[in-house]
Amino acid sequence: MNIIESSREKERISLHSHISGLGLDADGFVTDFLFEEKIKKRDMYIESTNKIENNDIKNGTILDSDKRENICNSYKFENNGNYENNKISYNNISDDEDEVVKNFYKCKGMVGQKKAREAAGIFINLIKEKNICKCLLLAGPSGSGKTAIAIAISKEISDESIPFCIFNASQVYSCEVKKTEILTQYIRKSIGVKIKEIKEVFEGEVIQIEPFYDNTYEEQKISYVHITLKTLKEQKKIKIHSSIYDNLLKEKIQEKDIIYIESHSGNVKRVGKCSLYQDMFDIETDTFVDLPKGNVHKKKNIIQNITLYDLDVSNVQPKDNILDFLQNNKYKKTEITDKLRNEINKIVYKYVDQGIAQIIPGVLFIDEVHMLDIECFTYLNRTLESNLAPVVILATNRGICNIKGTNIISAHGIPVDLLDRIIIVKTMLYNKEEILQVLKLRCKFERIKIDSEALDYLSDIGIKCSLRYAIQLLTPAKILSKKKGKKKIDKNIIEIVSSIFFDTKRSTELLLNDKNKYMY
């Protein structure tokens, strides 16, 4: 896994772009930062130095100050704060960047939320075992990493056949279709269908493409094309129709490419470039595959991963004149009827019974789920109990509040009958140590130089206000430090920036104090 660094100084990296998984070990536990081990090492060092010092004093010798300083530097640790037992201050201790990066690799970009990540790891096992009708709720305060855990779950699945669909509950709004129709579309986008077919194909490396023109008309038209394909066993020249040649042009087929052409439909698929030419360039972005074995004309098992929504759209949209269709329906959302969906379900079930297809329940992540109203919750409740239902992950930052569209008060703004079917995972606010690590990683990726005192002060701001606010202060502080000619961001720069840009709490206090000066 490569470290994500911005190529330009002005470019800002997405907050969740660095996440590559939950950071769990083989047993499903969190691979966390090694703070406890460092504290134990430091405690052992303090005890050993005290013993040595006492013994040296008894023997009439005293440790050299330079030697003691070198020993202290070798046992620096990352927890800023006061050590109460020995009453020694460890503020403003510098941090080793290599160790921060090493911990980043181990934790896959995740910091804190140990219990929530371990619970998510167990939930991933349910997904991989193809258990359907399971629902997970990530509940916690704003900025506690709910979306980050959901994205980490999608990275941990790492299976292209399992669809993962993300949408915000506020998107369930349209003047043209029903709210339940939008929910249904996202649910069917999250249910995959793996179709296995045995097709007759012509497969091999493209050696030559030779078009032949028809001169009977005023304009030259391609009547047929000779294409030469090569495998490890043989080389064969085949004659194809001009319409298949159009498919070759669409796929941008060139010589040295590995392709296959379906004999019945004429569909052309480019697999990649032949691996024999891999050493032609020092840097190459293409995919290299081995030269096919056997004959050019063969029977091949072809696996297609699609979703139920893809099948719905392919059957509801006309195929006669696609340009007219796009022009007429450019700004119109199409509603798919239940009758059509039932027919598609029957066909899918028929293929499943015949062993041609396999239904794969995917994952649907609904963020800000409290924005759904009572009708959507009722529909979602019924859908989770059906045979065709994905694994659903919900996220909310609400406590006890009204269900949208009603006067009913419920936990997390979700009806009680749906809460009974949900596994709830709580996410907690980050402590100072975790906020400090997040800020260090953010400074590392955005190439921001900041001293330890300013970083400690910024972590205090993250506890008092929010982690998002503390992260947002980094870029203005970097710009201000450059204007003042400073190489690093110091505490004074952070104080100036925080006084200019208000957080939510200070802005609310200002509005309450000066409420008479505002119109409403």
Topology-level CATH name of the domain at 114-190 and 362-426: Rossmann fold
Number of helices: 18
CATH C-level category of the domain at 114-190 and 362-426: Alpha Beta
Straight-line N-to-C gap: 52 Å
Query: In one word, what is the shape?
Result: globular
Q: Write out the CATH superfamily name of the domain at 114-190 and 362-426.
A: P-loop containing nucleotide triphosphate hydrolases
How many E-type strands?
17
**How much helix is in the residues?**
25-40%
Unreliable parts: 1-14, 34-39, 57-96, 320-331
The class by helix and strand makeup works out as: alpha/beta
Q: In angstroms, what is the radius of gyration? A: 31 Å
EC number: 3.6.4.12
Subcellular location: Nucleus
Domain AAA+ ATPase: 132-429
Family: Belongs to the RuvB family.
Features:
520 residues, alpha/beta, Rossmann fold, OB fold (Dihydrolipoamide Acetyltransferase, E2P), 8-stranded mixed beta sheet, 5-stranded parallel beta sheet, 39% helix, globular, disordered N terminus, AAA+_ATPase, nucleotide-binding
